[in-house]
Design brief:
The complex is a heterodimer of chains A (160) and B (176). Chain A contains six helices and no strands. Chain A has 160 residues and is mainly α. In chain A, helix 1 packs antiparallel against helix 2, helix 4 packs antiparallel against helix 5 and helix 5 packs antiparallel against helix 6. Chain B folds into two domains: 48 residues, no CATH class; 116 residues, no CATH class. Chain B is built from eight helices and no strands. In chain B, helix 2 packs parallel to helix 5, helix 4 runs parallel beside helix 6 and helix 5 packs antiparallel against helix 6. The chains are: A mainly alpha (160), B mainly alpha (176). At the A-B interface, helix 1, helix 2, helix 4, helix 5 and helix 6 of A face helix 1, helix 2, helix 5, helix 6 and helix 7 of B.
Chain lengths: 160, 176
Amino acid sequence: MISLYIVTAAALMVSYLLNAEKTMKGLRKGWMKFSKTLPTYLKLLMIISLVLLFTENLIVDYLSQDNILLGLFSSLVLGSVTMMPGFIAYPLARILVERGVPYMVVAGFVTSLMLVGIVTYPLESKYFGAKATVIRNVMSFIVAGLIAILMGVFYGEVFI
Amino acid sequence: MKKLDKNYLYFGAFLIFSLISWIASFDLGIRIWNNFLVFARDMVLILPPAFVLIGLFDVWAKRESVEKHFGDNNNPLRFLWSVLLASTTVGGTFVAFPLANSMYHKGAKYSSIITYITAASLFMIPMSIMEASMLGIKFTAIRLIGSLPFIIIGAILLEKYFEKTSYRLPVITDEK
C-alpha cells in the first residue's frame, strides 16, 4: 500500500517536472473519471456489505458436503455472488480445508470469488458495457470451473 | 446545476440507516456497517492514488506505444505485458476496469485488456502471497500457472466475438 503512494508521488513529480501543464490536465482527467465513478463505487460497497452478511455461513454449510460435484457447483455459484477481501476469504478457505473440504471445492470458491463479479456488475458495465460484462463473467465462470477441476486432478481428488 | 446521481441518495439513506442501527443497537445494521467499513477503508486508501495514475496514463501514454505493446495481433508478448501489468495493479478489478477502458481507447486489443482485467483479479501479488501462506504454495502455483492458458484462450475467443459483432466499449471522459 505504501509502495502505491511512493510510485504515485514519484510519477507525479517526474511528470510535473517534465510538463506541468500536461500533469494538471492528467490530474483533471483522473478526477473527472473518479467523480463519475464514485457513486458506482458507493453503491457497490453497500451491495457487498449486505451480501457478505448472508453468505459467510452459507459458504461453510454448503461447501462442506459429501457430494464433491455438488460441492464444486455450490462453491462456484457462491464464489460468484460473493465478494470479500483476501484477509477474510483465505482464513475462511483454510477453515474449509481443515474441515476436510476437497481442495477442488476450495479452489472453485476462491477462484470464482476473484474472477466472477456479479456484485461488481454496476462498475464493470460502466466501463465495459452490459454485453461485454455479461459475456466476460460467463467466460470467467467457466474458467474458474476448469481451474478447480485442474486443482482436483493435481491433488488426486478426481480421476479422469 | 448538474443532476445529483441517485446513488448518492441511496448512500445517504444507508448512512441514516446505519446511524439509527447504531443508536438502537440493531445488530444486523451494525454488522452491515462494519462490513462496509472493511471495504471502504481499502477504497479510500487505494482509489485516490490509483486515479492519479490513471489520469497520468491518459495524458502520457502514447497511442503508438499502447498499440505496439497491446494492440498488435502478431505480438504474442502482449499477453506477457498484460499479465505483468495486472500483477502489479493494486486494488484489483476496481482499478483495472477504468485503466483497461483507457487502454482500449488508446488502441489496445480486446484480447489484451480482457487478459489484463482477468489477470488483475487472479494474479495480485500480495493476495497470492497470503494465499500461499494459508493454503500452501502448491495450491497457489497450480492456480496461477494453470489459469494462464485458460485466461488467454478465453480472451482470444471473446475478442473474436467482439470483433465479429463490432462491439465498442463506452467512452468515460469527454472534455466538458
